[in-house]
Amino acid sequence: MGLLTEVSSLVEPTETSPREAVLVIDFGSQYSHLIARRVRECRVFCEIVPHDAAWEDVERLNPKGVILSGGPASVYEQGAPLAPGWVYDGGLPLLGICYGMQAMVHQLGGGVGRTDAREYGPATLHLNGAGSPLFDGLPGSFPVWMSHGDHITATPPGFEPLAHSDNSPIAALGNGSGAFGIQFHAEVEHTPLGKALLENFLFKVCGCEGEWSAANFVERSVNEIRETVGDGRVICALSGGVDSAVTAALVHRAIGDQLTCVFVNNGLMRRGEPEAIVDVFQRLDLNLVHVDATEGFLGALRGVTDPERKRLIIGEEFIRVFDEQAAGIGSVDYLAQGTLYPDVIESKTPESKEGARIKSHHNVGGLPERMRLKLVEPLRYLFKDEARNVGLELGLSEDIVYRQPFPGPGLAIRIIGDVTHEKLETLRAADWIVMREIEVAGLYRELWQSFAVLTDTHTVGVMGDYRTYDYVIAVRAVTSSDAMTADWARLPYDVLARISSRIANEVPGVNRVVYDITSKPPGTIEWE
């Protein structure tokens, strides 16, 4: 058996334990990740955990407070998710948001019922009086964002109403022991003073110091990687993107020559990319092994059209290649990967049993159930912008750090249908034009991603007085901060016109170009 396929259990990845943290208990809210982001923007580490997490599962984080997220359920329904007992018994500061407030009230002996008029969208919050640390420094009335069909009918013992809105007589409540509930969503941009409220909870209620930063993350990660790896050897799955680049730099700082980076050209990369990646990382003085596995990947993908199957096949092929390379390197104990928090959330949603898998990421959902190499994933709980800051802290160039994200499965999920050499060359040519025009227009750093998609649709066209029946290329450009949500980019018409004209004239087999104006949600950034 290979190193990655021997029957020993998958080992939990490296996790950097902060000196202070706040937990988000996830009840299946679409906004849970936004709560975590807002807390981290306040320089406090935050992690999302399932609503039935045991204390033993979170004690390592040394939590200084707990936030109960929103959710789609009603607390009085049978089987509705509730918070574990330790949330209330441990004496930790507590903030319930929307459903989280209702769960707290319900579990502590208050009343929750259906409201006559569902409150969704903008509302005005009116404070009942001064004196609560949660609203310290905030005006007596301010705009908030509501999204609920239930409301509080009676406060639990020891709690008092703190604020109201036109449709919510109890829109906020609290007690004298650091437990608060708010009916509105403080984490969304539609509540302009929401961050100030969260800062009050973190610093004035929980007593956090705001020490979460790229510099101390690097320091702690290096120490933990050294402690975890010891004298062992590590191979790093190096794709050339910012995630794997930062991972490689971080692990290299920790253990030096004990790390070997393996760059696999899977044949699914953009034009000129393999050569550029090898050049960049050789100059970083890392031990680098370059493997051209194009034929193996394309052979495994031959005839496959289902996008989930594509992702899983690519994950399996990566593992097979790493298996072979690890055997050639010698005794290897660990596999380092550039997995980020959105990858984990979207692939399996392990933090929430209430959530649904959106898509499998090749480095998460595509891993075999059993593997011998232990995983080292130091960025597993970071969002993309946090990973970029860590990269800058490690001294990586801005060309690497600010490179637009590129999916692990590469162009395979930007080709709708089966993947062939011919389709890859068509897509590479179109994508090259998109990227060059975006760069020339000075828009590259403003966009989260910009790329071309080869659809499986043919349309009639006219070229040189002849009828054509060729492919449609879709152009996608989005703005985002973390890929969990995204908006389609309002590219200038002249840029779109140049992209369309060049693709139709320069790329054989294409006679039509369309622009994708779908946001996420309801769509995803990638087409597959």
What does it look like?
Mean pLDDT is 87; it is low at 1-16 and 348-370. Helices cover 31% and strands 24% of the residues. It has 528 residues and is of the alpha/beta class. A 9-stranded mixed beta sheet has the order 2-1-3-4-9-8-7-5-6, with helices on both faces. Strands 12-11-10-13-14 form a 5-stranded parallel beta sheet, with helices on both faces. Strands 15, 16, 17 and 18 form a 4-stranded mixed beta sheet that branches.
The radius of gyration computed from the alpha-carbon positions, rounded to a whole number of angstroms, is 25 Å
**Main sheet properties:** 9 strands, mixed
Number of helices: 15
Tally of DSSP β-strands: 18
Instruction: Please state roughly what percent of the residues sit in beta strands, choosing from under 5%, 5-15%, 15-25%, 25-35%, 35-45% or over 45%.
Output: 15-25%
- How much is the average pLDDT? 87
Residues in helices, as a percent range: 25-40%
Shape: globular
Outline:
The chain has 528 residues and is of the alpha/beta class. Helices cover 31% and strands 24% of the residues.
Name the features.
disordered N terminus; 18 strands; alpha/beta; five-stranded parallel β-sheet; 528 residues
Secondary structure layout:
Layout: E1 21-26, H1 32-41, E2 45-50, H2 55-58, E3 63-68, H3 86-89, E4 94-97, H4 99-107, E5 111-127, E6 141-154, E7 160-164, E8 172-174, E9 179-182, H5 194-205, H6 214-229, E10 234-238, H7 242-255, E11 259-265, H8 273-283, E12 288-292, H9 294-301, H10 307-329, E13 334-336, H11 341-347, E14 374-376, H12 384-393, H13 398-401, H14 421-440, E15 449-463, E16 466-479, E17 487-488, H15 493-506, E18 510-515
Parallel strand pairs: 1-2, 1-3, 3-4, 4-9, 10-11, 10-13, 11-12, 13-14, 16-18
Antiparallel strand pairs: 5-6, 5-7, 7-8, 8-9, 15-16, 16-17
